[in-house]
Protein: DYW domain-containing protein
Organism: Triticum aestivum
Amino acid sequence: EDKRHGRIDRSLIDMFALHELLQLCAKRRSLLAGRSCHGLAIHFGLVTDTVTCNVLINLYTKCGRNDCARHVFDAMLSRSIVSWNTMIAGYTQSGEDVQALKLFQRMHREGRQLTKFTLSSTICACAAKYAINECKQLHATAFKLALDSNSFVGTAILDVYAKCNMIMDACWVFEKMPDKTLVTWSSLFAGYVQNGLHEEALCLFRNAQREGVKLTEFTLSAIISACASLALKIEGTQLHAVIVKCGFHGNFFVAASLVDMYARCGQIEKSYALFAYMEQKNVVIWNAMIAGFSRHAHSWEAMILFEKMHQLGIFPNEVTYLSMLSVCSHAGLVEEGRHYFNLLMSDRTVEPNVLHYSCMVDVLGRSGKTDEAWELIHEMPFEPTASMWGSLLGSCRNHNNSGLARIAAEQLFQLEPDNGGNHVLLSNVYAASGNWENVLMARKYLKDSGAKKEMGRSWIEAKGKIHVFVVGERKHPAITDIYNKLEEIYHDVRKFAHMTKIECDLHDVHDDQKEELLKHHSEKLALAFGLISLPLNIPIIIHKNLRICGDCHSFMKVVAHTTKRLFIVRDANRFHHFKDGSCSCGDFW
């Protein structure tokens, strides 16, 4: 009768109005107002209505109260697919990934219909937990339900594979997707960068540009990170121009990537200029600048920035403390390192992790306090990592603690059986102390184990091309000119009483042979090439995949003095700025 006369039931008006209020509360994250609306729903007897309960679950998950959402969910007499999807998504978004997976399993057991939203939310939970087996099962389920080609589901699967170091599987999923969204492209970009495949990330970026894919701040941030890792200064500068053109230069994460990129490319002044230009800065940008100063041995500048953060009310996070401990490690500042480590331990807003302890072990070990570093490893509430034992082994090599070096090496052989560098490092410890019998044993064990040692390489950019050198290089087209230039340099530096540090060569051969071997190290060949190829008014920037040796370091300082040139060497640890006969690291690296 009411419908015939155009009248609508008053209870329906109340329900629709309540739904609108609840949705507004969810949008504004207004938990208190939302609870009041929940009370009204109980008063009007609407809590038995499935749609009302779904809106309540959405409200509570948006406000971070999954416990309240689950209470509503469990009390429901009848649940729709939206009920399950909303609850699973709420768990995933708040990081309660185990609960999300358990709820999905229950849903599957009850024979509920699975949708693209169910699968994508659950797969995202797998990504957070690195649950690769569960993801593979969900991938098979998606394939069975013909949902694997859906952009939401496909992107979620791609993201899990990339985060679990299964980048080839991620690429396969990407290629099979008929419709790729911006999030899909961004996920693969991030996956390549996270897996250290920086050149592949740049190739994908070029493909995206050819296909007219719209650039996002996430895409640009990932590509800038790839340029930073490869030290591609020209490409990074070009991308900076693109970022300004697209209007993303004010984005915090893009700006942080740019600050990091310029620092990693050896342009710390440009990095700081960009940092100083920004009016608004979040902790990510401050961290990027502190880390940049750390890489370039500007320890006091990093400490000043840390103090400025406190003055401006910007609270440090775990990355900030990690950068400050790294600053102290590479500058030999033991007491300052203890200070920042104690600050971390007393900071209730930051949870110390194994990386912080690893950095503190490095602080102590590099300064010769290897026994204290060993004690810290035993006292810490974490299992020691390979990088921690590697740091201790390197410190033992530098400070001639062969007994502790043996212990660290044995741990490394178990954790990294395929890493030949650990065998070589132990061999070097014995060689430095003249224990040639143990050297032979260590090198024999390396040969028998089949472990591989990374070959030292240095490279330099000249006239738009990357030139790569190895020790004793013979294949470079200008190799004759390079060796002639190197001989000329050695003739000049001998006038300054430069003596080759033959103790840096750890072969059991005559001193003359050691000097000849050291003369043709890859970074010296790159330097000679730079001197004959680059104009006088620009710095010579050399990159090396391993730590620069002591003889090459001493050599660079003298040549910087004799040629009046600036040399910047980026090795595996940090940047070295050689100028007027000295290095920015203060001979501590």
User: Anything to note?
Assistant: The radius of gyration is 30 Å. The chain has 30 helices and six strands. The longest strand covers residues 458-462. Confidence is low (pLDDT under 50) at residues 1-10, 502-512.
